[in-house]
Amino acid sequence: MYAPFEGRRQEKTRDRLCGRIHTNSRIHSNGRIHLNGWQHTDRTEQEQKRKTVMILAGKNKFERNAPCWCGSGRKYKACHMQFDEKLRKYQIAGNIVPDHSLLKTRADVDGIKKSAEINMACLDAVEKEIAAGMPTEDIDRIVYETTVRMGGIPAPLHYEGFPKSVCTSINEEVCHGIPDTKHVLKEGDIINVDCSTILNGYFSDSSRMYCIGKVSEEKQRLVDVTKECVEIGLKAVIPWTHLGDMGSKVHAHAVKNGYSVVREIGGHGIGLEFHEDPFVSYVSEPGTEMLMVPGMVFTIEPMVNMGTDRIFQDADNGWTIYTQDGKPSAQWEIQVLVTEQGHEVLCW
Ligand code: MF3
Ligand code: CO
After folding, report:
1. CB neighbourhood size of 246 (10 A)
2. What does the pLDDT read at residue 295?
3. Is the CB of 205 under 6 A from ligand 1?
4. Any atom of ligand 1 within 6 Å of the Cβ of 264
5. Which fold has domain 96-347?
6. Nearest residue CA, atom 1 of ligand 1?
7. What digits encode the pLDDT tens for the residues 279-312?
8. From CA 140, how far away is CA 135, in angstroms rounded?
């Protein structure tokens, strides 16, 4: 039924979940171990597209009077030359900095915003219809139909073999739940609907929690605190500071409220690919990880658990992640652009 996109999705074969799984993490499944090591995004295609080179460690190879690498049409010296010098200074001082391929141009940002319009329309549409008695298969249908009607492609569909257009994760399901007819929503459930869209090659990604009917106070608090974690993270998206500054604040807020944060799966750069560098942790330390540099686009999407941070993966479907102790987990996700002044939320 989803045949139209089959070919396109198969063109790109990457390591599963590239960019979302932390270095050296091992997620135990019930019976098997998956996902050993660092799952890197294959950036070749993107790098060719931009024809950019990693200049930061060495001498600046760009001609002062040549057109800027960012595609603005301006001369390099009047455009990104000073910016590159600043970046190089930070790198020499020992910071991890992004290379040019991770920095979005104005055209990229416009493209991502159009993609995000579809993504947010999907989540709005789900919000209108979601109710007790609904199988998660119906959420998949709403997302698929809304996306296609608006001219987009659901990014999860056929992504590394993922069979559906959206992830639906209920209660103790942490993420990557697969919509089907068997998961029927009932009063008191909390569910994360994680939606991602491709439009004209630009990727958007956001997720929201929905409470089905009346939920317990403790579940409601988990959902609310997780949203606060994202808001606190967003406030810490300040250019030329570290991702670890942001991640540590997210973590601290969860811990202060008696919760834990999933370590092995995190956020990611995004825009020209679904999962780009950097991996974005929400259990990181201040002053560590990549510098947040204007032009970077990444997600803030902590998975906050009521109990243990330990997780395992479904051995049967190879996707769904659960809490080890069976206690509920919540997640909200936004997609953020780092700007000269601070940040701009592109998708929520
Ligand atoms: N939308 C998820 C994210 O936030 C990724 C889901 S990958 C899928 O990065 F294949 F499960 F859809
Ligand atoms: Co994401």
Report:
1. 29
2. 97
3. yes
4. no
5. Creatine Amidinohydrolase (3.90.230)
6. 194
7. 999 999 999 999 999 999 999 999 999 999 999 9
8. 9
The H-assigned helical ranges of the chain are 6-11, 44-50, 81-92, 106-129, 136-149, 217-235, 243-256
Query: What are 186's two structure tokens?
Result: 């009932």
Residue 96 in tokens: 């991890």
- Chain length of the chain: 348
In the structure encoding, which two tokens stand for residue 8, read together? 């396109």
301 lines ligand 1 (CB under 6 A): yes
What is the Å distance from ligand 2's center to 267 Cα? 5
- β-bridge pairing 153-154 and 276-280: unpaired
Given a cut of 50, whether residue 52 has pLDDT beyond it is no
Neighbours of 127 (CB within 10 A): 12
Does residue 22 contact residue 264 with C-beta atoms inside 8 Å? yes
**Tell me, what amino acid is at 219?**
K
Name the residue ranges covered by the structural domains of the chain: 96-347
